[in-house]
Structure formats: structure tokens, C-alpha cells
TrEMBL record:
InterPro entries for the chain: ABC_transp_permease (IPR001851), DMF_alpha_dom (IPR058713), LivM-like (IPR043428)
GO MF assignments: branched-chain amino acid transmembrane transporter activity
PANTHER family, sorted: HIGH-AFFINITY BRANCHED-CHAIN AMINO ACID TRANSPORT PROTEIN BRAE (PTHR30482:SF10), HIGH-AFFINITY BRANCHED-CHAIN AMINO ACID TRANSPORT SYSTEM PERMEASE (PTHR30482)
GO CC annotation terms, alphabetical: plasma membrane
Protein name: Branched-chain amino acid ABC transporter permease
């Protein structure tokens, strides 16, 4: 049984009006409404609001005045704002890193008080080693992160200062307190020598040069009788650790002295990175030398200054290294040591002081504390480094920013699903639209288009082809009324090329005085064929909308 549509014009005795016309199957608008409002994309509860504890009152000005001397970095970044819901002033801590730094350093200082007695010597030795390598990596981070110079000669500078100061202490009896300063002088000379190629070379080529320099130092000391080729290094330098103390007291003293060395390196990092020279290099990072020169900044000079200052600090650490271990071995120049140092930086995250410290703690714990694992611990370090390179853009301390970027992406996807359900405006666009009726009109127009798409069928197109003008079925009449209600801009029409013989489809401009544009070159032989061509184009646009 076919569906039929009763013509309301038949009761008014309209000419050529038939009583009934066949029509397609009935489609309920309610079904289209429910389908349109239903989400086609699974909506998952992703992300959460960032939570900060809020204090009442103002109070942000006091913390804004307190800064780390001699930098311009604030003690705490307190933001005061007005809460429209509670109708009162509130203040929140935006950057909690100073709090975490304070808690971490206090925990490191108090750790010897809670270390088990049977593991005290191992953990104190590992802690002292961690503090020395953390100081080295902080200075190395100034070179790679702040200055943007990819130097792999860090341990070459440290080793040269350690060998030089140890040699002077063994041969000429230089006391331990002078060794760090002698190492600083050696680091200055080595830094100036290594910094000269940085004026011409950059990136990968400079890294190759510096790793070659590191290997050259290793081969030279390994074959030099002057630096202990027969004994595996130089041993017997003066040390600050009293030899008449027991083992635990010596380890405890070394632990806290190395902790002071790490604090000095951290202060140097803040001093360089937080003052003018560090801000200059952050303003004009690598590959923006032209921008820096245009703003009056001597970019190359600033990079060389940071490199030389870091080399002096590395030399100081090298002198302290020989005073701490009473000498130095050839392994400080080995490629394994350089790779472990790179692993510390990559795991923690380049360009961040906390990344250098935490990355060093992870590698030293695996390498020095879990030594019973044997060579497998080096494999674990390599796997962690590989995972950080493959899946993390900024090391461990880049996870937070990376997670927020992923969460914002998922939020955008959820917004798009809401736009799919309720209309054609994103929430951000809807809030900025002055005429809110436009939002509801678009929503209604979308549901109407979805309903009209369900009415299109081959029978309906054949009906229009038989009779483009005149009375039609209910479904075709709905479709034609929607097409006629379209705005003038880009609305299809027909133009006469030759009366009663040739017609062409055009699109109206919608502006007075602007001629219509030709849509296609096809010529229609009759007016009905041209009307049907316009109908097919409108149907195609509707289906693609």
C-alpha cells in the first residue's frame, strides 16, 4: 500500500488540482530531533580543573616585592583576583616550584638522620656522588639550556682541572683548599680555548668537535707517564676529609660538603639564568641571531660569556673532585661517563635546573645504589633515557605541560561533539555572538536540514524531473520551500542564453550592481530542464552541508 498526500487546494476548486498525490514514507521530525541531539562521538570525562588553595584578602603585593637576591625572580608568584561567585578577593600561589625546591633540599639535608645503619655508608657515598654530579650537570645545563651551545666537553673541562690540581698537590704539596681555585683557573683557560670554535661552529658539528676533544684528553692522559699511565690515574692528593676519623664520620662530612657544593652550583645557575644575561639568551634563543642583533643584543657575546663562566665553575668542581677523592682516574674522560651525564639531563629535561637535579638522582641511584644488579642497571638507564626521548618532549618535568596539552586537545574534541549535538557554534563562538537568536536559528536550521536529508529519495528526484513546476507531494513541497527561503547570496537561478532554446545556471551575488556568476558551462535546452538542474545542485549542496 502506497502512502498518499491529500491536496488542500482541491477543496478550493483550484484549476488542475488533484485530490491525492503519492508521497514517500513518513519520517517523524521527532526521530530526527533525537538523532541530532544524540552524540555520535563517545564523550569521556577527561581532565579536571586546576586546583589552587585560595586565601582570602589581597596580600599579593608583599610577595611580589620579595625576590631572590641578586636576581629578579620572585620568592612566590602570588596572584590576586576577584571571585565573581563568592564576591570577594582571593589570592593563589601560581608557581609552586620554590616550595618543592625548599622541601627537597630540606629532605636531602635531613636524610642522614633517618638512613638505616647497615646502609649508611652506601647511601652517604651515593649522596655525595649525586651532589657532585648534580653540580656538574647544573653548570652543563647553563651551557646547553641557557646558552644553547651543544657542548659535550663538560667532563673534559672537569677532568683537566682535576688532573691539573691533583698533579700540583702530589708534586708540590698544594693544600686541598687551594685545589678548587687552581681548577677554576684551568677551567677558565680550557673554556676560552673551547669557546673559540663556538663562534664559527654550531649544533651537530660543534658537538662532534667537543666529543673529539674529550676523547683526545682521555687518550693523552692514558698514555702519559706524568699523569699516571701505569697506575690508572693520579692518586695521593690532599683532601679535606680527616684520615683519623671513622668511616661513617668521613662519609657524613663528605655528604654535607658535597651538598654545599651543589647549593653553590644552584646559586650560580639562578644568578646566570635569572639575571640580564640569562634573559637576553631566553629572549633570543638559537636560530634568532638576526632578531637579537636587531634589538641591540650581542647574542654571540652573551653565549660565550655564559660558556666561559660555566667552564670556570666546572674547573672549580674539578679541583674539588680531586680533593674529595684524593685524586682522579682516567674514567672521567670516558665516553661512558659522558653518556651517563647526557642521560641525567635528558631524563630530567633540558633547560630546567630541577630536571638536572632529579635526572642525576635517578641515574646515580640506579648506578651506585643498585650496584648488585650488575650490568643490567645500565640497560635500565638506557631504556629510561630512550623512553624519555620517544614519549616525553621535555623530560620528566615536561610531563605536566605535555599532559595539559593532551587534556586541552581532548577538551576541544568534546567541544566539537557538543557542536555536533546542538548546533554549528562552538561554546567560545556562542559566548562572543551578540545576537543570541542567531545561535538558536542555526540550531533549528541544522535540525531542519537533517530532516530534509531524510526525505530525499530517487522517487522524489524523479517526481521533480517529471514536473518541476506545479503541485507536488508533501515531501517535495517541504524541500522546495526550504530552497526558496535561502538567502540571495550564492542562490542558484537560471539565465536565458537564447529565448526558448538555451538556458544556463548562475549564482546570484546578493549585492546590488554586482552581476551573477556563471556556475557551469552546460546549456539546457528547455526551461524545465534548467529548473531541474538547479534543483539537483541544491540537493547536492544540502547533502554535503
Amino acid at each position: 500500500m502506497t502512502n498518499s498526500w491529500r491536496n488542500p487546494l482541491y477543496l478550493w476548486d483550484v484549476e488542475n488540482a488533484v485530490e491525492e498525490l503519492p508521497t514517500g514514507d513518513y519520517v517523524s521530525p521527532q526521530d530526527i530531533w533525537d538523532k541530532t541531539r544524540g552524540s555520535r562521538v563517545p564523550m569521556l570525562p577527561v581532565g579536571r580543573l586546576r586546583y589552587y588553595y585560595k586565601w582570602p584578602g589581597h596580600g599579593g603585593a608583599l610577595w611580589s616585592r620579595l625576590r631572590y637576591w641578586p636576581t629578579r625572580r620572585r620568592m612566590l608568584n602570588i596572584r590576586g583576583e576577584y571571585n565573581a561567585k563568592t564576591m570577594r578577593r582571593e589570592k593563589t600561589i601560581v608557581d609552586k616550584r620554590p616550595i618543592w625546591w625548599l622541601l627537597g633540599l630540606v629532605a636531602f639535608a635531613l636524610a642522614p638522620l633517618v638512613i638505616p645503619g647497615d646502609m649508611a655508608n652506601t647511601l652517604l657515598t651515593a649522596g655525595a656522588t649525586f651532589a657532585i654530579y648534580a653540580a656538574i650537570n647544573l653548570c652543563w645545563m647553563l651551557i646547553i639550556g641557557t646558552a644553547g651551545i651543544y657542548s659535550l666537553a663538560t667532563y673534559a673541562v672537569v677532568g683537566a682541572a682535576a688532573f691539573g690540581s691533583a698533579y700540583l698537590s702530589i708534586q708540590y704539596g698544594v693544600p686541598w683548599y687551594a685545589l678548587p681555585f687552581i681548577g677554576a683557573v684551568i677551567g677558565l683557560v680550557a673554556g676560552l680555548f673551547i669557546a673559540i670554535p663556538a663562534i664559527r661552529l654550531d649544533g651537530f658539528y660543534y658537538a662532534l668537535l667537543t666529543i673529539g676533544l674529550n676523547e683526545l684528553c682521555r687518550v693523552y692522559t692514558l698514555q702519559s707517564k706524568l699523569f699516571g699511565s701505569s697506575t690508572g690515574g693520579l692518586y695521593g692528593a690532599d683532601t679535606y676529609i680527616p684520615q683519623n676519623w671513622n668511616q661513617q664520620s668521613q662519609s657524613l662530612l663528605a655528604y654535607y660538603v658535597c651538598f654545599i657544593l651543589m647549593m653553590m652550583a644552584l646559586c650560580l645557575y639562578r644568578l646566570i639564568n635569572g639575571r640580564r644575561i640569562g634573559r637576553i639568551l631566553r629572549m633570543a634563543p638559537e636560530k634568532r641571531e638576526a632578531f637579537a642583533e636587531a634589538t641591540g643584543v650581542d647574542y654571540r657575546r652573551a653565549r660565550i660569556q655564559v660558556f666561559v663562566i660555566s667552564s670556570i665553575a666546572l674547573g672549580f668542581i674539578g679541583g674539588f673532585y680531586s680533593a674529595h677523592y684524593r685524586g682522579v682516574a682516567f674514567s672521567i674522560f670516558s665516553f661512558d661517563t659522558v653518556l651517563l651525564g647526557l642521560a641525567m639531563l635528558v631524563i630530567g629535561g633540558l633547560g630546567r635546573a630541577e630536571g638536572a637535579v632529579v635526572g642525576t638522582a635517578i641515574v646515580v641511584f640506579l648506578d651506585k645504589v643498585l650496584i648488585f644488579l650488575g650490568p643490567i642497571r645500565l640497560l635500565i638507564i638506557g631504556l629510561i633515557m630512550l623512553g624519555a626521548v620517544l614519549f616525553l618532549r621535555g623530560g620528566l618535568f615536561g610531563i605536566k605541560a605535555q599532559f595539559r596539552a593532551w587534556r586541552d586537545k581532548k577538551k576541544s574534541e568534546r567541544r566539537s561533539t557538543r557542536a555536533e549535538k546542538g548546533g554549528e557554534m562552538l561554546p567560545e563562538e556562542a559566548t562572543e555572538t551578540k545576537n543570541k537568536d542567531l545561535l538558536y536559528w542555526r540550531r533549528y536550521d541544522k535540525m531542519q536540514r537533517d530532516y530534509l536529508k531524510a526525505l530525499i529519495s530517487p522517487e522524489l528526484i524523479a517526481e521533480h524531473e517529471r514536473s518541476p513546476l506545479g503541485q507536488h507531494s508533501e515531501a517535495l513541497e517541504r524541500l522546495l520551500l526550504y530552497f526558496r527561503r535561502a538567502p540571495q547570496a550564492d542562490k542558484y537561478a537560471i539565465t536565458v542564453v537564447e529565448p526558448f532554446k538555451a538556458y544556463r545556471i548562475v549564482a546570484l551575488s546578493g549585492h546590488r550592481g554586482v552581476a551573477p556568476r556563471v556556475v557551469e558551462d552546460k546549456i539546457y535546452a528547455s526551461q524545465n530542464d534548467a529548473y531541474h538542474g538547479v534543483f539537483l545542485r541544491r540537493v547536492q549542496d544540502l547533502l554535503e552541508s
